Fold these 2 entries.
Entry 1:
Amino acid sequence: MHPLASAPETELKMPQPQVQHVENVQMDLQTQPVSSPTTTGSENDEFFPLSGRPSFHVVLIKAHLKPSYQMFLPTKMHPVLPCATIPVVLSYRGKNWEMVYYGDRSGKRFDSNWKTFIIDNDLKLGDACVFELMECNSKNVKFRVQILRGDFPSELLARVNGESSNTPIIID
């Protein structure tokens, strides 16, 4: 029997975006740009340690992808971000995507240019994005993004069955 088969329906919820380091934000983050941390590689590095700045991660669900392409920011990030409609830049692997952050609405979110970020980076259901706040003031916001692919490791594909709980994926 599948482990979730016996769980009550109310316990089977989609994961909520997680936020880290929001409680320790200093007010100067709201008024001054934050310089980039030193990393041990080029700016095109795909993975890097978080610097301790406000950050959150999101596992992409259907609402983030087509056809709606919506990206609402988690409630715990709201106190850190401006309550205004301002430009936001997402930076990933040395490339920038410009969009608008609607911070003056009840559902604080990115505008429809979020779709371009999704398409350009070939993001799919189950992929995850880690957003680290690099710059935040009353005129603009900048997030550095890491993308974690939800693909099954290619070296294990030959051993995959896993279509049902009767044919599980076995990893030795």
Entry 2:
Amino acid sequence: MPEIPTPVRHRVIIGEGADARILRVTVSLITQREGCTALGHVVGLYAKLELNGDDRDESVAYFLSRLEGERRWVIDAKFGSDGYPHYAHGFGERTSATRSIIAPVARILDDLARALGLAEHIGERVPLVLAARRLTP
């Protein structure tokens, strides 16, 4: 299974002009995964990343999934820098309203999934098709 040997770091600019903010994005894990949810067996991609503003040392941890056929990355869990659980669901749970990650961060994850050979088709508004399955529990 291809893995990220070291965390991948990016900077993204959100907004324009005086309202622009720079976010640091650190992806520490992205892999194919399968699981069992209230809706049955699911397969897809799983990622863990941290986001923080360029002006702050504290980061927020996100756990995300994108199931086969989905067109966006969904936030499964979000934890504050102090460990506070802002939002917490298991891998691939879709029984309540879903929240998605912002487009510039989603593009980073899409590019990583492609580069690691985890996805055959992926992109903004492109349904996920996994590459030959190398699933982790």
